[in-house]
Write a structure and sequence with these properties.
11 helices; 17% strand; alpha/beta; eight-stranded mixed β-sheet; Rossmann fold; globular
């Protein structure tokens, strides 16, 4: 069911299946909404309780006035679990949602008992990334958020999957009309200011799984392979024939690996 609750003094759009022993929280990426996970959430809900939200500044959720830091977003996620009366959960984040998920692990290690990164990294923005985000802020300030979305969202898919997934891409772009432009700008500023989370990933005691796409336009396969070597305590995979949205482009493979990870580490649930 979908509903709203006030968390960290902003309204938050929440979806909660309410059934299942192990709870998985799904956090979407930049310019997305909870509906990016519609198919994955449905597949997972046969075995697990699935909670997803519109992150601050996105979709139907509110936003802080100036900046949605990753720590602020993590506090919102923690409050959502309290609203849903969930004591512990595995947190899975896509792209920007992965940055928030890492902050969840850092800030609330007793609540979040596992981590899944979907096409995301622990690295902070470098100079080029920050410049790119400033260009996007200027585009949004010029009232061209939907134009930005129409050009940016297709790049999240491997070239070989674009025609096959036209409907999903169009849906995601259309959902961008629900975003508050100032909220998106606040998220861009939050990503620009986020800290390096490599130490979080290196020292965390919770089990983790890192998903990457072989044809990701934002995370080269060489970078993905290096990350898997750099953090040997985390399980992971580079999924063939997909880009930055592995869970949409290769849903059966991602679901198979994700369920195996969850069942291996949380069998008692």
């Amino acid at each position: 069911m979908e509903f709203f609750s006030t968390c960290q003094n902003i309204p938050v759009h929440i979806s909660d299946t309410k059934k299942g022993g192990l709870t998985i929280v799904l956090l979407h990426g930049y310019l997305e909404t909870m509906y990016i996970f519609t198919e994955l959430a449905e597949a997972l809900s046969s075995k697990y309780r699935v909670i997803s939200i519109d992150l601050p500044g996105h979709g139907l959720s509110g936003s802080s006035k100036e900046i949605n830091t990753m720590d602020f977003c993590a506090s919102v996620v923690r409050d959502v679990l309290s609203v849903c009366k969930v004591d512990k959960a595995v947190v899975a984040g896509h792209s920007m949602g992965g940055y928030v998920a890492l902050s969840c692990i850092k800030s609330f290690p007793d609540v979040f008992e596992g981590l899944v990164l979907l096409n995301s990294t622990p690295f902070p923005d470098d100079h080029n990334k920050r410049e790119g985000r400033m260009r996007q802020i200027n585009i949004i300030k010029a009232s061209k958020l939907t134009t930005l979305a129409a050009s940016s969202i297709p790049r999240m898919y491997g070239e070989g999957n674009l025609r096959r997934l036209d409907e999903k891409i169009e849906e995601t772009v259309e959902n961008c009309e629900t975003h508050d432009p100032n909220g998106i700008i606040a998220c861009l500023r939050g990503m620009m200011e986020r800290e390096d989370s490599c130490q979080v990933l290196k020292t965390m005691k919770q089990p983790a799984f890192l998903f990457f796409g072989e044809d990701d336009n934002f995370i080269p396969s060489e970078t993905a392979a290096d990350l898997l070597k750099r953090f040997p305590n985390a399980d992971g995979a580079i999924i063939p024939k997909c880009g930055h949205n592995s869970f949409i482009e290769q849903p059966e493979k991602v679901l198979e690996l994700l369920e195996a990870f969850l069942d291996k580490n949380f069998t008692s649930r």
